[in-house]
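Pilot study result, target chain (164 residues):
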Amino acid sequence: MSASASGFDLALLLAEKGLAAALATLGFAVLFNVPRYALPYCALVGALAYALRTALMQGGAGLVLATLLAALLIGLLSTALAQRFAVSVTLFAVGPAIPLVPGSYAYKAVLGVVKVANASGLEGHGDLLLAALDDGIRATVTVLFLSLGIALPGLVWTALWRGR
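Predicted structure:
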């Protein structure tokens, strides 16, 4: 595969993932009664954040780091938009954050624990339990970093603003 084909494939993947994330973001934003004027901004923030996470993961970054950096992007853009429209940051941040939640890891963790709990004994299920624990920790840390990444730019902005 040539470098240009690889670049084109990556651009296509990012556009596809970004569009899907924009649609998911819109769905969640409507569900949370985000005002109509804010919907396009939410969709754009969601698309950019998910595309960034995808690009970072394609480049070799892990899920947790890629999600943290995507969440920082959400936090920065949401803080700027909240300042622009004089509204809460959460208006622009919640919808775009939800598609970044690692649902598959949480699902696999719970499913693994349920399988082990329904087993007659723990012999032979140690690997399954360890995999469930690994998935659960990965999902938990990712959600914690997602929250931190979204909150951090607003906290820094507030601290800088008060310091003036």
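One observation from the pilot: DSSP finds six helices and no strands in the chain. A full batch analysis is planned for the follow-on phase.
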